[in-house]
Specification:
CATH class of the largest domain: Alpha Beta
CATH topology of the largest domain: Phosphatase 2c, domain 1
CATH superfamily of the largest domain: PPM-type phosphatase domain
Number of helices: 15
Strand order of the largest sheet: 2-1-11-10-7-8
CATH architecture of the largest domain: 4-Layer Sandwich
Strand content: 25-35%
Helix content: 25-40%
Length: 652
């Protein structure tokens, strides 16, 4: 027995559909649920119904279908409301309408209606996962139900001899041994049994067994796969919206190499999604989800009975969604490009809320280039991804090896630039009889837009220090940052004030930077004889000053950015210091780091107040210990989402 669930999404306190027929006609979502199925609604991209709203929790509420009725369970921080009352659970009866407010703060209403219907018993009956736990299948024992996918139930268990943990994939429906479902199962089993690649989950066993029940006997189709200890990419995307360029590219290249192995055997995967890529304990990417394997030189029958589309919505190629028999090697290239897009942009290429909208977007929709959704992505990488996502298969890469080559060449170029850039940077520690200095340089992607430069003039007993951040990201930012370091080293030879040094840098670089590129930075001269510092700021680079017995003070007189507009201005400030005074300078990666477990709002950032408090608590310690305390607190409490540089100086 199954039910059809209609959901209407509208504005807060909107009347919405008021009858069964109107709800059916205007439903935002239509879902078919069978006994034991569940449906999640929330802000997580892995939710069955994804809602892009910061007031909604990652998994806001869950609907479970059991004993011919739906139980709605709240799982949120802000609450789920029925008739303006906060609920914990609510039972939804068939053929009735329910108006649900997702929170008392956000303007959204959901209308729910269930309509009962029976699944025909001819040739197809549902297999309940509750019947399977504890059963032995020859040399294997099913132990724990894990989840259900589109066509199968997933369990973990053990192989008795040799003793090892395994994964069971049991098809949801029984069918006759001469049915198309049985033939498709046998075909996939035959293909998977021939595969041997370290990046694939290995198939240990497959079989069709007779499941004896009190009132009937059912044919049960099952696979036994290698158990991979690790974390799916889908889970990582729930914890962190994006996964970073380096990690994402290395992961996708590994999976692309697995797919190239399949393609050489004329096998297409057709079922690629973040949930089917697991990062194992060795940090290697492994590919699972082998239930839709197809040989190109054999039959072209779609795997899903009565359904013309194949693959995971949001990642499947257009030709797969329109006709499941049409997919080829280039369909896997599209799906892998869609996963890379999600890893770097925080969402799939299409975010349609219903299958009908997804088909519409897939046929005529436009994919937003990745570098427009995530400005930190270089245009070159965005262009590679967009080619893999071409709607016309003929416009994609002609083979997986070509896709691998493009991504690898991008990474190699990035590695070379990183080596060159790091060669420009100086030691991260400096000390003499007048000052002790520690520097943390941590770009988000191993290379980035932050830069620093310092020089001690022994004869004058002065030290010049620059710290800055360019507006670009990734390789282009690293190029600009390298240019800034080289320029700082040149102007450092001039006997000029911090203000004049910034003006000189601006005049030299304005014509060289692109119109949208610029740098914010601070220039400081430490005069150890006069015990004073003179500084000028171009843009906002905070300079935190602390003297024991007083509150930390943010010294700031921001001027215009270097190379931003033709007219440049900045001010110059002089302050006296005493022994044990502390200065902390940082780029915006610290103050704007997002606290772990928080939503993306300004109140949830690490912030300067927390840095001030930490400085007061550790003021009596040495410079390196203060530095370590700041670094530990920031990295353990926050998700750093930008290049980060911190400089701590303690005067002697």
């Amino acid at each position: 027995m199954s039910i059809t669930l209609y959901i209407y999404l509208g504005a807060y306190q909107e009347s919405g559909p008021n009858s069964l027929d109107i709800l059916k006609q205007n439903a935002s979502y239509t879902k078919v649920l069978r006994e034991g199925d569940s449906l999640t609604i929330g802000r997580s991209l892995s939710s069955d119904i994804y809602l892009e709203d910061s007031f909604i929790s990652q998994t806001h509420c869950i609907l479970n279908y059991h004993n011919s009725s739906i139980l709605l369970r709240d799982n949120s921080r802000n609450g789920t409301y029925f008739q303006r009352k906060k609920i914990t659970t609510l039972s939804l009866e068939p053929n009735k309408l329910y108006s649900i407010d997702i929170s008392n703060r956000k303007s959204m209403i959901f209308g729910y209606m269930v309509e009962s219907r029976f699944i025909p018993k001819a040739n197809s009956e549902a297999i309940s996962p509750k019947l399977m736990e504890g059963k032995c299948l020859g040399n294997f024992k099913i132990e724990k139900y894990e989840q259900s996918g589109g066509t199968s139930h997933i369990f973990t268990g053990r192989q008795i001899s040799p003793s090892r943990q395994v994964v069971f994939k049991i098809l949801k429906y029984s069918s006759a041994l001469d049915s198309k479902s049985a033939k498709r199962f046998q075909r996939v089993a035959r293909i998977a049994s021939r595969l041997n690649h370290p990046g694939l989950a290995h198939l240990y066993h497959s079989d069709i067994t007779l499941l004896e029940l009190p009132e009937k006997r059912l044919n049960m189709f099952y696979f036994v796969f290698e158990f991979i200890q690790g974390k799916p990419i889908a889970s990582m995307l729930q914890e962190s919206t994006t996964l970073g360029i380096e990690f994402s590219l290395h992961t996708i290249i590994q999976i692309a190499q697995v797919l190239a192995y399949l393609h050489k055997k004329k096998i297409v995967h057709r079922n690629l999604a973040p949930s089917h890529i697991i990062i194992d304990q060795d940090k290697s990417a492994r590919l699972v989800g082998l239930g839709l394997l197809k040989e190109l030189d054999r039959d072209q029958i779609a795997i899903l009975t009565g359904c013309h589309s194949i693959g995971v919505e949001g990642y499947a190629a257009p030709e797969q969604l329109l006709d499941g028999s049409c997919g080829d090697f280039r369909s896997d290239i599209f799906s892998l490009g869609a996963i890379l897009y999600h890893c770097l942009c925080g969402r799939p290429p299409y975010t349609s809320k219903t299958k009908r909208e997804l088909f519409r977007d897939d046929i005529s929709g436009v994919i937003i280039p990745p570098d427009q959704l995530n400005p930190s992505l270089p245009f070159t990488l965005s262009k590679i991804i967009m080619k893999s996502l071409s709607r016309d298969p003929a416009c994609r890469y002609d083979c997986m090896e070509s896709f691998i080559q493009e991504l690898s060449q991008y990474l190699e170029g990035k590695d070379m630039m990183r080596e060159n850039f790091y060669a420009l940077l100086q030691n991260t520690s400096f000390a003499n009889s007048h000052v002790e200095m520690e520097i943390l340089y941590k770009p988000l992607e191993h290379i980035g837009g932050d830069f620093y430069y310092y020089k001690y003039f022994e004869k004058e007993n002065k030290m010049l220090l620059f710290l800055g951040d360019t507006t670009d990201h990734g390789t282009s930012a690293a190029f600009l940052a390298g240019m800034m370091v080289a320029s700082c080293s040149l102007v450092a030879q001039m006997p000029a004030s911090p203000k004049n040094l910034l003006e000189t840098l601006h005049n030299a670089l304005f014509s060289l930077f692109l119109s949208e590129s610029s740098a914010e930075m601070i220039s400081i001269v430490f005069d150890f004889n006069a015990k004073e510092i003179t500084f000028s700021q171009a843009g906002y680079i905070p300079l935190l000053f602390y003297r024991k017995g007083s509150d930390p003070v943010a010294l700031q007189k921001p001027g215009s950015r270097v190379a931003f507009t033709k007219r440049f201005f900045c001010e110059e400030t002089v302050i006296q210091y005493k022994p044990n005074d502390i200065f902390v300078i940082s780029t915006d990666g610290i103050a704007e780091a997002r606290l772990r477990g928080s939503v993306e709002s300004e109140e949830e950032r690490y912030g300067m107040e927390r840095l001030n408090s930490l400085l007061v608590q550790n003021a009596d310690r040495g410079c390196s210990e203060i530095f370590e305390a700041i670094y530990t607190d920031v990295t353990e409490s926050s998700l750093i989402e930008d290049d980060t540089t911190i400089i701590v100086l303690k005067m002697r």
